[in-house]
Design a protein that fits this description.
By secondary structure, the protein is α+β, with helices and mostly antiparallel strands. It is built from 14 helices and 13 strands. It binds adenosine-5'-diphosphate. The site of adenosine-5'-diphosphate has 20 residues, from helix 11 and helix 13.
Length: 448
């Protein structure tokens, strides 16, 4: 059997110790000083190890091949192994440093700013683009809390409520002409990667599109008012009304539809506006829903439908929000339920909360929506059945408005539906938007 290198060295070491002690004992036997020679052999053996330890230590301080100590037995093996370990480490180090160089070159070439933050949101590293887009300086800004360098309140809020899926748009702190979109991704447990992309072009395009829609809608308002005015005069005139009854009716319907579309488009542009700051106040949602319910009841009766309404509202549950925006979102959901639920169907309105948030839910026993349509319902002008929607006076913008209003309130719309059974539209508000009546508000309400 072939001996392993280490086995062989052990074997050598064993013979070395044996020979040393035998020689010592032979000399001791000849001189009669065997104890002295035993101690001497022992001291020699220990001295040999100490000497090799010293050489190893010296080599570890300056590990080069040409000063690698040579030794027989186990020490030779140790020196060899140390040298091989050292070589392997050097190779690994070279590989790592090449990799690091490549990563550095790659991040430097990246047009997006990337910043590494630690658990305390302090900057650990940033790439070249961060200097241009975020105005960071190296090394002064390393170790600084990022909140001290980007001082927008919206950015602070964004950092405090970090959510991977959300992004934030703001003007670059380094250049007012640059618009940035920021994403923060957690990684390695307690670190964050902040990515900032220059979206100036996209932002301008969006602005042009928004302005165009808002301007066209605004321009259409005046001619529509004039046409509606003339149609009203003609309808009031008995001669015209008798001769042109049907055309007048159709024209009135179409003008009303166009007005609704224009108003919805203007509302959407307002909701989308960059400068749209949400001024919030405590909203008594239960009262708001009661008012919407009265209107829905009127709409249901007007259309000759006999819906059964069921209201389950928590009157003590208030929401920090914009009352008018909430009214338009909730009424869109409730009126849709009226429009798309056949006569005799049930419509249930719920306003309640649990430990995760507050919910406004509209449940109907209407026609339902096929699953393939659900993800697209909040797109503008997306309708499952265009003819049906038009005949019901729908603009195709209702759910787009709902989505925008909910976005403003940090809320989300969840839709569940089964064809032939009905639909559930749930507005899911975060806990931070829930509030309660203060004692002053309560007293004011009593005075009123
Ligand atoms: P519209 O003005 O056409 O109602 P919306 O944006 O409010 O536009 O709704 C988009 C589409 O979603 C509607 O055309 C309709 O097909 C579908 N929809 C909305 N609400 C309901 C509902 N409660 N039941 C069934 N379908 C609905």
């Amino acid at each position: 059997m072939l001996l392993e290198v280490s086995d062989y060295r052990w074997y050598q070491e064993f013979w070395f110790v044996l020979v040393l002690f035998v020689v010592g004992q032979v000399l001791g036997w000849f001189t009669g000083l065997w104890l002295t020679f035993l101690v001497l052999t022992f001291v020699l053996y220990i001295g040999w190890h100490l000497y090799n330890l010293y050489r190893l230590n010296l080599w570890l301080a300056y590990p080069k091949k040409n000063n690698l100590p040579e030794a027989m037995g186990l020490w030779g093996e140790i020196f060899d192994r140390c040298y091989r370990l050292h070589q392997r480490n050097r190779k690994r180090k070279r590989k790592l440093s090449n990799m690091l160089k490549r990563v550095r070159r790659f991040t430097a070439a990246m047009p997006d700013a990337s910043v590494i933050l630690n658990a305390n949101q302090e900057i650990e590293w940033f790439n070249k683009a961060s200097r241009k887009l975020l105005g960071f300086r190296s090394p002064q800004d390393l170790g600084q809390a990022i909140g001290n360098l980007i001082r927008y309140p919206s950015f602070q809020t964004f950092l405090n409520q970090l959510n991977e899926k959300e992004s934030l748009k703001f003007v670059s702190p380094a250049n007012n002409n640059i618009m940035l979109r920021i994403n923060v991704v957690p990684y390695a447990g307690n670190h964050y990667l902040l990515l900032a992309r220059d979206v100036t072009q996209l932002h301008r395009l969006e602005q042009v599109r928004r302005d165009f829609v808002a301007n066209v809608s605004h321009e259409l308002r005046t001619p529509l008012t004039v046409i509606a005015g003339f149609l009203e005069t003609m309808s009031d005139d008995e001669e015209y009304a008798s001769q042109w009854e049907r055309p007048l009716l159709l024209m009135n319907q179409q003008v009303a539809r166009m007005r609704n579309i224009v108003e919805d488009l203007l509302l959407l542009s307002r909701l989308e506006g960059e400068n749209h700051e949400l001024s919030t106040e405590p909203v008594v949602v239960a009262e708001l829903v009661q008012e919407i319910y009265q209107e829905a009841l009127a709409l249901s009766e007007e259309q000759g439908l006999r819906h059964q309404f069921n209201l389950e509202l928590d009157h003590d549950l208030l929401l920090m929000g914009h009352a008018e925006e909430l009214r338009s979102a909730f009424s869109n959901l409730v009126f849709n339920a009226v429009r798309y639920t056949p006569s005799g169907g049930q419509i249930r309105l719920r306003w309640y909360c649990d430990e995760y948030g507050a919910y406004f839910t509209v449940i109907d026993s209407g026609e339902g929506i096929a699953p393939e349509h659900i993800p697209r319902l909040t797109e503008r002008f997306y309708r499952v059945d265009v003819g049906r929607s038009r005949s019901q006076g729908g603009t195709g913008l209702g759910l787009a408005i709902v989505k925008h209003v909910l976005n403003h309130h940090g809320a989300q719309l969840h839709i569940e539906s089964t064809v032939g059974e009905g639909s559930v539209f749930c507005c899911d508000f975060p806990v931070r938007m829930i509030t309660q009546l203060s004692e002053d508000d309560f007293e004011n309400e009593l005075d009123f």
